[in-house]
Sequence to fold (136 residues):
Amino acid sequence: MTRPVLMGLGCYLALFAAMLGQNTAYQPDPDWRAPEEAASKPNPLANRPAAAAGGKKLFLRNCAECHGEDGSGILKKHSADLHLPVVQEQKDGVLYWKITNGNPDRGMPSFSKLPELERWQLVLFLRTLKPADKQP
Ligand code: HEC
Fold:
């Protein structure tokens, strides 16, 4: 497909998503960057996929009010669509650091009050979300 056609398609998709209230146009804040040391931390629960179920409960309790129950973001809250490749491409350590520290200036609170393992459980759950363009 040619570039203009693709761009046109992108606009339609964004418009459709906006009607659903999702935030598919979300772009991460370039100034919100995890230090290298935090970014390279592996998820200690990586080989415990069953822990993602607990992560989902934590997500519904702490995160769904802004990111939606399915994690696709809420346009009005400017929250991230967590299915997007721009989010999923980031390392576990980076997502953990972002959940821990938040980006209060742009509306994402810090969750440093949650126990460390619960934060890693949340990261595990985020990995179960499919990229938006792969949804049926
Ligand atoms: C009060 C609303 C609110 C709550 C509650 C909230 N978030 Fe967010 N979240 C946001 C907003 C707004 C952004 C976008 C921040 C930005 O633009 O930099 C965001 C961004 C993120 C990002 C980063 C995307 C990126 O830019 O890389 C992740 C990951 C995330 N949230 C996960 C969570 C998780 C997990 C929880 C629950 C523990 C949670 N959020 C709870 C509002 C919220």
User: Anything to note?
Assistant: The chain has seven helices and no strands. The chain has one domain: 3-134.
